[in-house]
Every structure is written in C-alpha cells, then in structure tokens.
Amino acid sequence: DSGVTQTPKHLITATGQRVTLRCSPRSGDLSVYWYQQSLDQGLQFLIQYYNGEERAKGNILERFSAQQFPDLHSELNLSSLELGDSALYFCASSVGGHPSSNEQFFGPGTRLTVL
Amino acid sequence: GQQVMQIPQYQHVQEGEDFTTYCNSSTTLSNIQWYKQRPGGHPVFLIQLVKSGEVKKQKRLTFQFGEAKKNSSLHITATQTTDVGTYFCAPRAWSNTGKLIFGQGTTLQVKP
Questions:
Q1: What are A85-104's pLDDT values in tens digits?
Q2: Chain B residue with minimal CA distance to A107?
Q3: What is the DSSP string of chain A?
C-alpha cells in the first residue's frame, strides 16, 4: 500500500459525459501528479500540482482539467468524453515539487471505460 | 524536446535466465528513476541513479547509469516468476521544464 488513495476504482460512462476522479496523496506529500495509461501509449504525464498550484503540464487535453484543494487532495475532471479516453488514470504523490529529485508514490488507479 | 527510447518492448525468458532492459535519452540527464508495475498493479519506485557511471544493486537487480548520463540499464540475474511485470525508466533531463516523461516500458514474462 503506497498511502495514495484514488476513487472510484472503476468508472463506466457514455460518450459526451463528464466524470471526476479523486486522489488523496500520502500524508505529508505536497505534490500530486496525474497520469493516463492506455495499452498503446504507456504512462503519459498529464499535470502536476504542488501545494495547491499548478507546477507542470504535460499532454493534457483541453477537455481535461484538474485542481488541488487546500487539504491537498486533487481532482481530475474529464469532460465531453470520447471512446479514446478509456484508460487507467493514476495519481501519484511526492514530498517535494521538483520532479528530478522526488520518488513518486502511485495510487491504485481508476479504470475509466467510455462506451 | 527530450526523446526516450526503452528497449526491448517485450521479453520472454525461461525462469533462471538473465534479463536486461535499456533506456536511452536524446539529452543529458540529471538523474533517472526506475519503476516496476506488476500486472494489474500500479508503478512502484525501484531506484534513482544520479552520478555518471553509477552502479547500484538490489539483490538480483543491477542498475547502471551511463558515463555520459544519456542511458541506463536494469539487469536481472536468474529471473524468477516474481519478476514478471513492466519496467519503466523515468529519465529527468536538465532541460526538463517540468514535464515528466516515462519510457515506453519493457514487459517481462517469465516461464517457469
């Protein structure tokens, strides 16, 4: 158990819908990272938040947005869902904000299926 | 931008055989991390290499960082069925603007 929690574990929805994925980092970790993992794309970095502020952005679609709240939990919002958004979404956390010096702890992931 | 190539993509070995995965970057790295993801699981941090030419061992796993800090390898001696999974490198470049890049991963299958 990494100490990072993600809800829900599974999510099945239809195209065009909007969903929210939730992540609680390890106690004491200030950074939260979101990743998308699909079969043919590996682990794709979406976005990082550090202590409530956006720190780095990857290939995140405009239909996707995220935020980190004062209690440090984070939410990833996916809207106007398409079939291609079906994937495993991981949240990870780390102590500091600099990606080059911090081990990341991954949550169990949320499996999103868009029908 | 930074390009990362991890090879091979897949490797099937007989239990007891050795296994190596390679990670190559187009740019000089500040450090590199390695993660393992078991089937159905999440990535788990294995190690971080920082110094040029660094070699670190964890039981049957040997991690190397190239002298030029552009490549790295993970070698497993005498594989066991518990080694099954996908191994990802996560190279960090000095020019990195904050975007985090993982290699494509090497999926290891071990036949008992």
A1: 999 999 999 987 775 567 89
A2: B42
A3: --S-EEE-SEEEE-TT--EEEEEEPPTT--EEEEEEEETTTEEEEEEEEETTEEEEE-S--TTEEEEE-TTS-EEEEE-S--GGG-EEEEEEEESSS-TTS---EE---EEEEE-
Q: What is the DSSP letter of A84?
A: G
Taking CB atoms and an 8 Å cut-off, how many pairs form between chains A and B?
A: 54
pLDDT tens across the length of chain B (112 residues): 678 899 999 999 999 999 999 999 988 988 999 999 999 999 999 999 999 999 999 999 999 999 999 999 999 999 999 999 999 999 887 655 556 789 999 999 999 9
Mapped onto helix, strand or coil, the DSSP state of residue B66 is coil
pLDDT tens-digit profile of A19-47?
999 999 999 999 999 999 997 668 999 99
CA distances from B1 to A108, B40, B94 (A): 30, 31, 11
Cβ distance B98 to A90 less than 8 Å, yes or no, reads no
The length of chain B is 112
Single-letter amino acid, residue A54 = E
Provide the chain B residues 57-96 that lie in CB contact (below 8 A) with chain A.
Answer: 88, 92, 96
In this complex, is the C-beta atom of B105 within 8 Å of any C-beta atom belonging to chain A?
yes
